[in-house]
């Protein structure tokens, strides 16, 4: 009986010692679905939801103040950059490229609500420009560029980078 008790005690010590020495592995980080993936809660196309269309509202004070934007185009292969001043609501063919820019609205203090995009004031505190980029006639970008936050929804391309520098007053 003593041998049996001793054997049980030794086996329990080995079992506890083995579990106590195991290195705790942190759980793997959760995988995030790609942004805007259909079928994800709250995403367009989930449960038959239609995407929310946001109306762009440019306050009159903003319309009367800004006439153009300065956009920088980086030619990655040439390792050079050029700045272009482009009027609002116009098309611009980027020299030495097959890119055409459609410059839309400029909002000096970009603000977004549930159903609209507007400017909170006329102060350039969060400048943004509405931009469409076409390559060979095909749209390759449609969105907003932000001068203070260029990595938020940036235009990505192998050969070119496009950045909003600032708005130009009338």
The helix content, as a percent range, equals 10-25%
Q: Report how far apart the termini are.
A: 100 Å
Quick check: average pLDDT?
Answer: 82
Uncertain parts = 21-47
Protein described:
This protein is mainly beta and 170 residues long. It has a domain of 115 residues. 14% of the residues lie in helices and 39% in strands. The protein is built from two helices and ten strands. It has a four-stranded antiparallel β-sheet, with no helix packed on it. Strand 8 and strand 9 form a beta hairpin. The longest helix is centred in the first third of the chain and has 19 residues. It is globular and about 100 Å long. About 16% of the residues have low confidence.
Please give a quick description of this structure:
The protein has a domain at 55-169.
Question: Key terms for this structure?
Answer:
three-stranded mixed beta sheet, globular, 170 residues, 14% helix, mainly beta, four-stranded antiparallel beta sheet
Question: What's the layout of helices and strands?
Answer:
Blueprint: H1 2-20, E1 55-56, H2 60-63, E2 66-75, E3 80-87, E4 90-93, E5 99-107, E6 110-112, E7 116-119, E8 128-135, E9 138-146, E10 160-169
Parallel strand pairs: 1-7
Antiparallel strand pairs: 2-3, 2-10, 4-5, 5-8, 6-7, 8-9
């Amino acid at each position: 009986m003593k041998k049996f008790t001793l054997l049980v005690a030794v086996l329990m010590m080995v079992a506890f010692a083995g579990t106590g020495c195991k290195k705790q592995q942190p759980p793997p980080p959760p995988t995030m679905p790609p942004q805007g993936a259909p079928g994800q809660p709250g995403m367009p196309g989930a449960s038959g939801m239609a995407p929310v269309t946001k109306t762009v509202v440019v306050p009159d004070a903003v319309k009367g103040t800004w006439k153009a934007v300065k956009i920088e185009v980086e030619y990655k292969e040439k390792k050079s950059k050029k700045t272009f001043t482009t009027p609002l609501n116009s098309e611009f063919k980027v020299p030495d490229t097959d890119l055409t820019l459609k410059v839309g609205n400029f909002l000096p203090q970009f603000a977004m609500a549930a159903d609209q995009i507007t400017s909170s004031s006329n102060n350039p505190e969060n400048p943004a420009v509405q931009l469409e980029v076409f390559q060979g006639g095909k749209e390759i970008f449609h969105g907003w560029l932000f001068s203070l936050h260029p990595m938020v929804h940036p235009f990505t391309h192998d050969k070119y980078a496009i950045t909003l520098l600032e708005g130009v007053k009338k």
